[in-house]
Amino acid sequence: MSETNEFPNLRILDHPLIQHKLSLMRDQQTAPIQFRQLLREIGLLMGYEITRDLPLSSMDIQTPIAPMRAPTLAGPVSIISILRAGLGMAEGLRELIPSAREGHIGLYRDPETRQPKEYFVKLPEEPGRVLMVDPMLATGGSAVHAVNVVLGRGVPASEIRFLSLVTVPEGMRVFTQAHPEVPVFTAALDSHLNEKAYIVPGLGDAGDRMFGTQ
Ligand code: PRP
Ligand code: URA
Questions:
Q1: Which of 2-23 are b and which e, b meaning 16 or more Cβ less than 10 Å from the residue's Cβ?
Q2: Enclosing H/E stretch for 107
């Protein structure tokens, strides 16, 4: 795991398996079924890192040999997928934390204004630690909006972690200015945005590649 000087809230997960799988996802020859499978696997691997600081409490149990106080997760964990592409990464997180509650925030980027348009919000009542998932953090507009929605439900910023797959400096600047206290975990800080606000080199439109809609 590495950090950058410009973005103290950004952690780049440079595990070789994550990097290898991301390269396969970037390849335009990769079909939707493989793309989804890879996204699920990366979600699981990245989930290991973003849950590293989950608080623990303890409970009394009896092993076959002796009684003991055993560590256990202290509170609820919620996975919040940003639709559509967040669904793929959330699958991996769900495997890792089967007890997690789940929420969904439906957003799409208006092709003209490039601003996020919200079309659906359903969140757990008492979410505890919130793991927000969206593979692409491009202009940062969607991520900033989604975090605003969660903060608006009374979740403290200190309980939020944002999991992306690929980001760029432009989007990270926007996100960090809006939410400096929310850590972002990513697999790659790419070069820049193109004239259509797509990440370069990126992997294209994540939602379309997942669902074969283009
Ligand atoms: C993609 C992606 C993010 C957003 C990032 O979703 O999954 O939500 O774009 O762009 P931004 O940082 O510039 O806001 P999209 O709007 O394409 O919707 P989709 O997942 O339904 O395809
Ligand atoms: N959304 C995507 O899915 N890909 C990008 O490169 C930018 C926004």
A1: eeeeebebbbbbeeeebeebbe
A2: strand 101-109
Measuring CA to CA, which residue among 80, 149, 145, 153 is closest to residue 109?
145
**CA 205 to centroid of ligand 2, rounded, Å:** 5
Q: What is the pLDDT of residues 29-75, one digit of tens each?
A: 999 999 999 999 999 999 999 999 999 999 999 999 999 999 999 99
**Do 55 and 74 touch, CB atoms closer than 8 A?**
yes
Q: Which helix (H) or strand (E) holds 20?
A: helix 16-26
Q: Are 18 and 192 in contact (CB under 8 A)?
A: no
Question: In ligand 1, which atom is closest to the CA atom of 171?
Answer: 12
Instruction: Dump pLDDT digits (tens) for 84-122.
Output: 999 999 999 999 999 999 999 999 999 889 999 999 999
Cβ–ligand 2 contact at 203 (below 6 Å): no
Three-state DSSP class for residue 3: strand
What is the best residue among 136, 165, 186, 210 to mutate for testing ligand 2's pocket, by most ligand atoms within 8 Å of CB?
A: 136
> Beta 199-200 vs 192-193: how paired, if at all?
antiparallel
**Torsion over CA: 158, 39, 186, 138 (sign):** negative
Distance 109 CA to ligand 1 centre (A): 6
Nearest atom within ligand 2 for CA of residue 206? 3
Structure-token pair, residue 170:
């432009």
Position 1: which residue type? Answer: M
CB within 8 Å of 189: residues ≥ 6 apart: 4, 10, 12, 167, 168, 169, 172
Q: What is the pTM of this model?
A: 0.96
